[in-house]
Amino acid sequence: MTEAGTAASSAATTLPEPVRQRVLTLAAQALGQLPATDVPAPLRRFASFAPAKRAKLSASVLGPILETDEHFRRLTAFQVRREHAELGDAVAEGIPVPMADPVEVAALAYLLRPDEWELRIAAAAQLPAETPRADDEAINRLSDQLDQARTETRQVRERLREQVNELKAENVTLRRKLNEARQRITGLQSDLEQRTTEAETADERVDAARNEVERELRRLRARITELEAVEHAARRTAGQERELASTRTRLLLDTVLEAASGLRRELALPPGGDLRPADTVAGTEPEAAPVGRTAPEDDPALFDELLALPQVHLIIDGYNVTKTAWPTSPLHSQRQRLVTALGALVAQRRIEVTVVFDGAELSGPVQLNPPRGVRVRFSPAGVIADEVIRQLVRAEPPGRPIVVVSTDREVAESVGKLGARSLSATSLISRIARA
């Protein structure tokens, strides 16, 4: 080796401090860009630090690893060359760059290792020092620490190499056992597949039989349910028809009996068929007062006569009456005043009273306390109160006296065709006011 080469090699062995600091800075920056698998174990804890902190804390570990780990140095050099493409390419290809910083060129040459890279470092070493040299004692202490770190690094590497050899031997043993286990598993899988095929065939036959039985059971259950529904509907219909027929018959019988009793009182018939002594006295007998069916509909006397009929049912068009009597009051107040007044009328006459309100007038749940004996109904959605009144009239047996209070002419005509008597709202209002 020439004298110049010897000097360059010696200079490369111990980097000038500015070059060493620049090498550590470039390597620390590249360390954060490398994949975790390419970073040596001692440096992995520094990889996530900030660049400045990483360069400061990892300097004592990073320098020795760059000298001893050729693979890591090459990965670092590749990353540094990517970050400093123009100058890095020139240094790697040996092209002189006169205007470049010699320290920067020497640091890149140390990492990239082009031909005669030692000369670049030697050139940087000949530059005049910008700062005073450190004390020899500090330099020796740092050198001792560096040697100690290198020794520890070699020991760690040897221990890791031994562990790797042990793991390789264990891996060979595990592979052999794995192959033996795979052979046993292959035999067991063949036996299992055969048995599984036989079991699946048997399961298919069982499932087919089960499905057939379940289909038959569902058909029979559906038939039983259908028959039970038909029987239940027939029983309910028959029971309702019997109850309704019994109610209508009893009501009609009570009406006939009370009508006969009222007719006896009205005609003043004697209790027996025998002639009484007073009957032999001559005189002119008074004529019976006509029943008020020819009186005006708003005549209070006619209203009282109709309420005196036996088993009479009084059906009232609620809002037709309340809006005539109290047009300025709120609807809830109108309803309560009407049913309260009808409660007093029921207490006096012992009659059946039903009040029908139009459900379309409602804006929410109804709060109403009807007195005893007053039935209150609201027409359902989509049905007007007039139709509910007609349904109530149709539900009564023929022959029962029914009085409908409504000023609506259409309602009066329709209930008249059904056999009911209609009165105007003013007749009821007058009767309530008189009471």
From TrEMBL:
Keywords: Coiled coil
Segments forming a coiled coil: 139-237
Keyword DNA damage (UniProt): no
Region (Disordered): 270-294
Cited Gene3D superfamilies: 1.10.287.1490
Protein name, entry field: NYN domain-containing protein
